Amino acid sequence: MLHGTREAFDYVECGACGCVQIAAIPPDLSRFYPDDYFSFRDHRDLDRNPVRRHIDPRRVRFSFGARDWIGALAEKVSRPFDYVDWVRRAGLGPEARVLDVGCGAGKTLLNMALGGFPEPQGVDPFIERTLSYRCGVTVRKQSLQDFARETSRRFDLIMFHHSLEHLVDPREALEAAAGVLAPGGRMLIAVPVAGSWAWRHYGADWCNLDAPRHIHLLTSPAMDILARQAGLTVIEGRSVGRLSQFTGSERYRHDIPANDRRRDRELFSRAQLAEWRRRTDELNAAAQGDQTMFLLARA
User: Fold this and answer.
1) Share of the chain above pLDDT 70, in %
2) How far is residue 123's CA from residue 23's CA, in Å, rounded to a whole number?
3) Which pLDDT tens digit goes with each residue over 260-269?
4) CB-hemisphere CA count at 13 Å for 176?
5) 258: closest CA among 273, 270, 248, 250?
6) Are 113 and 120 in contact (CB under 8 A)?
7) Cα 191 from Cα 239, distance rounded (Å)
8) How far apart are alpha carbons 106 and 113 in whole angstroms?
9) Averaged over 203-221, what is the pLDDT?
10) Could you write out the DSSP letters of every residue in 173-195?
11) Quick check: helix, strand or coil at residue 161?
12) Residue 49 confidence (pLDDT)
């Protein structure tokens, strides 16, 4: 339903941990990641933005406690950087060496590089070619496992930001990531979670099921098992569900694909959207949002 093909796929649910996974992985997954897939969009305009090259590092330094009146002013009038919160929760700072797995064209890495993080790196086997940016970001067209075998670098923060659910073997991926994790490093894993209210309520119409790209829909117990098998431990799991668990799933329930150009406010009333925003906050507070951000460390 993301691209409106309406193909059908069978999923199975584990009776022990609740993990939901596709019954048969399609032999050619690449056809479900067309050139216009949202994470492949070109972001070279970010790489060439002189204003942000000057302002973003000052905002980041201020966010981590430095005195900088320009950074303070810019932070006050701008939307906060999500990645600052991720790094801070990991107990790290702006000097952290970052690897992003399954990052597409590297938009998050570009933002982090503009903020002063030193040469953030990424890997994604589905991009058209390896990408190198002037700000020091490189995104390799490569699997994490191949990258881990070849690199001598170690990373303080390894992110699977909505990518682990796309991988055929998540345990193998976490083991490979653990091999390039620096001492005291952290892994940040953001994934849609089965067992959430949206999964129970919408079932096959749950937008974050996203068949067949999402191969495994983990739960908190499943994440604990997976981490332990990879020599890791979960130190935090925070519910971060979004409004889309309602708007996207209601679209699918009414046979409206995600690539339909109508906006939410054209399809749903203002009162309905306000109620869903309230319910989103309520579900996150009850650890029932349809996405969870896990923080992992070596066991």
Assistant:
1) 95
2) 27
3) 999 999 999 9
4) 21
5) 248
6) yes
7) 10
8) 10
9) 96
10) HHHHHHHTEEEEEEEEEEEE-TT
11) strand
12) 74
